[in-house]
């Protein structure tokens, strides 16, 4: 089953993301779903600091 997902995103981030996805010939939703699945599987180390959130893939 598929579910629509809508949220507001900074225009520069959105435009850059779209361009990189196009460069790799990937659909944006596929990349987002992959990221979300990896995040849900806790495959990232989450670091919260003064400059914001950083995500790093766990080894």
Which features would summarize this protein structure in a list?
single chain; 59 residues; alpha+beta; two-stranded antiparallel ribbon; 2 helices; 44% helix; globular
Structure commentary:
It is a single chain. The chain is α+β, with helices and mostly antiparallel strands and 59 residues long. It has one domain (11-57). 44% of the residues lie in helices and 20% in strands. It contains two helices and two strands. It has helices spanning 11-23, 28-40, and strands at residues 44-49, 52-57. A two-stranded antiparallel ribbon has the order 1-2. The radius of gyration is 13 Å and the shape is globular. The termini are far apart.
Brief synopsis:
The protein is α+β, with helices and mostly antiparallel strands and 59 residues long.
Q: DSSP strand (E) fraction?
A: 15-25%
Number of domains: 1
Report how far apart the termini are. 31 Å
What is the strand tally? 2
Produce the secondary structure layout.
Layout: H1 11-23, H2 28-40, E1 44-49, E2 52-57
Antiparallel strand pairs: 1-2
């Amino acid at each position: 089953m598929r579910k629509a997902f809508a949220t507001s995103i900074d225009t520069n981030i959105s435009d850059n993301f779209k361009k990189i996805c196009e460069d790799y010939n990937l659909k944006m939703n596929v990349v987002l779903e992959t990221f979300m699945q990896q995040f849900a599987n806790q495959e990232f180390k989450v670091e919260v600091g003064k400059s914001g959130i950083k995500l790093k893939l766990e080894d």
